[in-house]
Specification:
It comes from Neomoorella thermoacetica (Clostridium thermoaceticum). One of its GO terms (molecular function) is RNA binding. Residues 125-186 form the ANTAR domain. One of its GO terms (biological process) is phosphorelay signal transduction system. The chain is built from seven helices and five strands; from the N terminus they run βαβαβαβαβααα. It has 208 residues and is α/β, with parallel strands linked by helices. The protein has a five-stranded parallel β-sheet, with helices on both faces. Helix 6 crosses helix 7. The longest helix has 49 residues, at 108-156. The model has no long low-confidence stretch (mean pLDDT 87).
């Protein structure tokens, strides 16, 4: 497995050095480091690390803003460092990809398990999101195909099985997804219906 690249955003140089030492000793790569939030954001967007260790006491752009941008850009999971336990901090960051909270000074016995858990859980969440996205796409395609089948059944007097086979055959003949064929049928039907309506409206207006 490829070594994880970790970015450290922490204002304290000695703390950053200590974190780097512990991580490198465990085989992790340091993607980069920054002493303030603004620099951290620029570098994180460029370097695309696998994990961000974020100090809640960052200067400049604060840690919450950095976490918000990381979440919006879907960059990486976050481990948040704090000087003490704050329930309010946890509440304010619970919608962000913060997978662990560690109290400073950070010990290796808590850092490494937190890193491993954050990386593993983020991969799991990402896979689930991808699966959900595929299911939604499949459901949307199925709805489009069902609608196109209904149009073929109504306009051509086909059975459901015949309408489906017609869609399937056109999909194979043209080497395009069945959803694309179905969408074309729906658009053509709507245009035809719109033309009929316009013609009827024009005829009614003339008789009036």
């Amino acid at each position: 497995m490829q070594q994880a690249k970790i970015f450290i955003a922490c204002a304290d140089p000695s703390a950053r050095q200590n974190l780097k030492y512990m991580l490198v000793r465990e085989g992790y790569l340091i993607a980069g480091e920054a002493p303030d939030g603004s620099q951290a954001l620029r570098m994180i967007r460029t370097l695309q690390p696998n994990l961000v260790i974020l100090d809640s006491d960052l200067q400049g752009t604060n840690a919450l803003e950095v976490a918000r941008v990381i979440d919006e850009d879907r960059v990486a999971p976050i481990i948040l460092l704090a000087s003490s336990w704050h329930r309010n901090l946890i509440i304010r960051t619970r919608d962000f990809p913060v997978f662990a909270y560690l109290i400073k000074p950070v010990q290796e016995s808590t850092l490494i398990p937190a890193v491993e858990a954050a990386l593993a859980n983020y991969r799991r969440v990402t896979r689930l999101e991808q699966e959900i996205s595929k299911l939604k796409e499949t459901l949307a395609s199925r709805k489009v195909v069902e609608r196109a089948k209904g149009i073929l059944m109504d306009t051509m007097g086909l059975t459901e099985a015949e309408a489906y086979r017609r869609l399937q055959r056109q999909s194979m003949d043209r080497c395009v997804p069945m959803k694309t064929i179905a969408e074309a049928i729906i658009v053509a039907h709507e245009l035809q219906q719109g033309g009929h309506k316009a013609k009827n409206d024009s005829g009614n207006s003339g008789r009036a």
